[in-house]
Amino acid sequence: DAKTTQPTSMDCAEGRAANLPCNHSTISGNEYVYWYRQIHSQGPQYIIHGLKNNETNEMASLIITEDRKSSTLILPHATLRDTAVYYCIVRGPRNTPLVFGKGTRLSVIA
Amino acid sequence: SAVISQKPSRDICQRGTSLTIQCQVDSQVTMMFWYRQQPGQSLTLIATANQGSEATYESGFVIDKFPISRPNLTFSTLTVSNMSPEDSSIYLCSVVWTGLEQFFGPGTRLTVL
C-alpha cells in the first residue's frame, strides 16, 4: 500500500509556482521521498528525490520538513506542459520497486 | 539514465488470445519490473523480472496469466494470456538505475475486445 497522502487535484496559474504537498507521516529513517509525474498516458517521468535535505534540480525543488513527515514539490514557474498527475512516493532500500498511490492531478491554467 | 523501449506501443486483441510485450533497455540493469495501469487508475506492480530465474509476482498476479521472461540484463517480455476485456490497460516496463533512480518505458496500450 502507498505510504503517502496527496490532494486529489490542484490548479495553478501559468507562470506561477506550483506547490504540491505530500504527507508521509509513517516514513522510516532509511526511506527516500520520490516524485514522479505522468503526462497523459505516457510512462511516469522521474522528477526528484530526497532523504532529509532539501533538493533542487533543473525541473523542481523538494522541500522536506525537519521531522520528515511531509514534503512539498515546487515547480517554480509552471507552464501548460506541466499539467500532469504528480506522484509522491516513499521508497525503502535500494533496488526495491516504486509503489504508486493515486497522486495529485495538477492543472496549469493559462 | 537508462533508455527503455517497448514493443508494441499499442495493440487491439480479441478475447481469449495472448499478447507478448517486449522491453529493451540500452544498458545492463539488475532490476526490471512490470506494471499495469488500468483506465483512470494509478500504476500497479505486476512482478519483478529476475534474470535467469522465475519472476516474483505481487499479490493478485499469477504466472499462468502473466508469464515473464528475462533472458539477459537488457531484455524482458511480459505475456498477457487468455485475454479478457478486463485486461485492457497500459503495461509498463521499468528498471532501476544506480540503485536509486527508477525509469519507465513508454508503455504498451492494450485493448481487448
Strand order, largest beta sheet of chain A = 1-9-8-3-4
**Quaternary arrangement of the chains shown?**
heterodimer
Q: Provide a count of the helices of chain B.
A: 0
Q: Kindly state the number of beta strands of chain A.
A: 9
Backbone shape of chain A = globular
Beta-strand percent range of chain A: over 45%
What is the radius of gyration of chain A? 13 Å
Number of strands of chain B: 11
SSE-based structural type of chain A: mainly beta
**Helix count from the secondary structure assignment of chain A:** 0
Identify low-pLDDT runs of chain A.
none
In whole angstroms, the N-to-C terminal distance of chain B is 37 Å
The portion of residues assigned to helices of chain A is under 10%
SSE string of chain B: EEEEEEEEEEE
Structural class of chain B: mainly beta
Spatial separation of the terminal alpha carbons of chain A: 36 Å
Q: What would you note in describing this structure?
A:
The complex is a heterodimer of chains A (110) and B (113). By secondary structure, chain A is mainly beta. Chain A is 0% helix and 45% strand. Chain A has strands spanning 9-13, 18-23, 32-38, 45-50, 55-56, 61-64, 70-75, 84-91, 104-109. Helix content of chain B is 0%, strand content 52%. Chain B has strands at residues 4-7, 10-13, 19-25, 32-37, 43-49, 56-57, 68-72, 75-80, 89-97, 101-104, 108-112. In chain B, the strands form two sheets. In chain B, strands 2, 4, 5, 6, 9, 10 and 11 form a seven-stranded mixed beta sheet that branches. A four-stranded antiparallel beta sheet of chain B has the order 1-3-8-7, with no helix packed on it. In chain B, a hairpin with a 5-residue loop joins strand 4 (32-37) and strand 5. Chain B is globular. The termini of chain B are far apart. The chains are: A mainly beta (110), B mainly beta (113). Chains A and B meet through strand 4 of A and strand 5, strand 9 and strand 10 of B.
